[in-house]
Amino acid sequence: MSVFLFGIVNSDVADAVSWSGPIDADSEPDATRLTALINGFAAELGCALEGAGYTDFSTDIPSDSNLYATAKAQIIKRSAAQWILENQRHDDDYTTQAREAWSDYLERARSGQLGTLGADPTPRSNVQGAFNSQSQITIQPSKAPRLGYWRKGKGFN
User: Fold this and answer.
1) pLDDT tens, residue order, the chain (157 aa)
2) Same domain for 16 and 49?
3) Which residue, 34, 27, 49, 109, is CA-closest to 79?
4) Domain limits for position 155
5) Adjacent-strand bridge partners of 132
6) What is the pTM of this model?
7) CB count, 10 Å around CB of 71?
8) Do both 153 and 78 map to the same domain?
9) 66 and 21 share a domain?
């Protein structure tokens, strides 16, 4: 699997760490090293996805899907964290959290839990009516045309 499957280039990671300065031939690590980091993390995720049954990436992971977007974001975040770690030569909260998030994401990919990503239904409330805090009961909303006005004995509605 190539890094280009998710369309990630050095500038994507550079944008994620823009506060640290430019990533070019003079930076530490340089742009060539960053490309190697991106390819390494993309290959690692590609193996996990193949193990979960995603064999034809062009049809199994459409570029407009949530899986594509989250995979891309995870690779960018992990590559950025590794670049920061190598640049600063010490671990901080961001790099630690990024490594943990990457491990969790790979574990989800290996176990095949990514297939339902974004497919969950939107949460909805089953409560009908309006809550009246004075009597602590739920009452049906008023059908009157003056909705939103305070009514003595009823409150709003």
Assistant:
1) 344 568 888 888 888 887 777 777 777 888 888 889 999 999 898 888 888 888 777 777 788 888 888 888 999 999 999 988 888 888 888 889 999 999 998 888 888 776 555 444 444 555 555 544 455 555 555 555 555 556 667 666 5
2) yes
3) 34
4) 125-157
5) 137
6) 0.66
7) 26
8) no
9) yes
Distance of CA 77 to the CA centre of its chain: 10
Q: Is there a single domain that holds both residue 57 and residue 11?
A: yes
77 and 38 assigned to the same domain: yes
Give 59-115 as a DSSP string. Answer: HHS-TTSHHHHHHHHHHHHHHHHHHHHHHHSS--HHHHHHHHHHHHHHHHHHTTGGG
Q: What is the 8-class DSSP label of residue 144?
A: S
Task: Match 């574990």 to its residue by tokens.
Answer: 107
